[in-house]
Amino acid sequence: MPTPTVRRLQLGHLLRHAREEAGLDLDAAGKLIGKTNSTMSRVERGQTSLPQHVLRKLLAAYEERAPGAVEEAEIFDLARGSQERGRWSGYRSVYSKYFRMAVDLEADASAIFQYQTEIIPGLLQTEEYIRALFTTARLQLSDQSTEDALEARLERQAVLRKKDAPQAGFVLSESSIRRVVGDRALMARQLRQVAEAAHLHNIQIQILPFDAATAPRATHDFKMFRIPSPGNAGPLEFVYVEDFTDGRYLDGHGDVDAYTVLWQQLVAAALDPVESEKFIVRVADEFAR
């Protein structure tokens, strides 16, 4: 079962698809059930929900205008399973509120694409690398918070090895594999694990070297998610961009298309997967000397 966050997003996605099939804008749809444009927008973005009787009235109106457009069974199934129920308690409380949606998207994605510039991506980090990030990097967490952060991040990594693991592509700037976290011996072990991860059938890792002449102007990290959606509405697609104090989720067609093009340019500019693995092993050997 998808996470509550993703179920809400899938529900909103199906409702938007049904509304568009019915030929209605948000204002017209809202008037059918006495709701405002802003309320309908929040419903379709998965930020709020409608009472079941109101949802049923809305679906009936859509179905009347576009027979067959409403996937009622899927919609009500998603609506019943969209509550949080303490998911972010315990060690998971270490996640910043703005990052929690990214964790849920990660858990339910069919595809994840990530560009990283300065450190190894969290999904590929070793336990000792994670610990070093929260100790030698002086992120000023308590001992317990460090252990919670460690447990939470290791839990996230299981997504790459589960039964229905997503296809995952990583383009890593050369700086991310040369930046020393902990010490050189630790970095050698970390990079060898990255090279081993590249052997998994669902993972592709590429290095963007410093001398990549055709590298596009990608100066910040980003992550792209593709989330399956039930019915005929097509997948959800999100871009996650994070800065020092906040994270943004972009799902507009223009934003997703722009980042898709940028991702394709990065993949083209980077070393191919075979050469990238050789590059990673070579840098690991340099750290081990």
From TrEMBL:
Domain HTH cro/C1-type: 15-70
PROSITE patterns attached to this UniProt entry: HTH_CROC1
Pfam families: DUF5753, HTH_31
SUPFAM superfamilies in UniProt: lambda repressor-like DNA-binding domains (SSF47413)
Coiled coil: none
Protein name as catalogued: Helix-turn-helix domain-containing protein
